[in-house]
Design a protein that fits this description.
A 4-stranded parallel β-sheet has the order 3-2-1-4, sandwiched between helices. The chain is α/β, with parallel strands linked by helices. The longest helix has 16 residues. It has a single domain, classed as Rossmann fold (3-Layer(aba) Sandwich), CATH 3.40.50.720. Helix 1 runs parallel beside helix 2. It has 5 helices and 6 strands, in the order βαβαβαβααββ. The two termini are 23 Å apart.
Length: 168
């Protein structure tokens, strides 16, 4: 533990299992408070929440279907209500196709996977570290500046973050 994330708040989509759950645990070890997101596996979300708290960090569990823009907005509202702001956004949520080849997937399963990714992107629920969306009133604030970190997708424009929170 190096404390690299001391005082930071991370929202990790799909942190109820797998890579997202492991990332939440590691972020907590490094000092971050964590917003644990899930869609179906509340038990997994509660398990990692307890693991985060066992590291001496705070955790809040939020259920949201990231294919639904209103639920994404509510997820961010709950996260900021609990912690005040977000520093790290990791879009990890995905759809498990159980090892099938894309050509073998039923159309509805394939469509669900695409919607999980594309709607999340259009809802600003993707990004990389320190690339979370900020309310427009903060963007106009004199204490803000454009974040110059490049997001991994063109669907997320350059964001504006408060000067003291920008990791660039």
């Amino acid at each position: 533990m190096t404390g690299r994330l001391d005082g930071r708040v991370a929202l990790i989509t799909g942190s109820d299992s797998g890579i997202g759950q492991a990332t939440a645990a590691e972020f907590a070890k490094e000092g971050a408070d964590v917003v644990v997101h899930y869609l179906h596996d509340e038990e997994g979300a509660q398990t990692i929440s307890k693991g985060v708290e066992a590291q001496g960090r705070r955790a809040v569990v939020v259920r949201a279907d990231i294919r639904q823009e209103d639920e994404v907005a509510s997820m961010f509202d709950e996260a900021t209500a609990a912690f005040g702001s977000l520093d790290i956004l990791m879009n990890n949520a995905g759809v498990d196709a159980s090892g099938k080849k894309v050509a073998e997937l039923p159309t509805e399963v394939f469509d669900n996977a695409i919607r999980t990714t594309s709607t999340a992107r259009s809802s600003a629920a993707v990004g990389s570290f320190s690339c979370a969306p900020w309310p427009e009133e903060r963007a106009r604030s004199s204490t803000s500046r454009p974040c110059t970190r490049t997001c991994p997708t063109p669907a997320v424009p350059t964001t504006t973050v408060p000067r003291e929170r920008c990791a660039c």
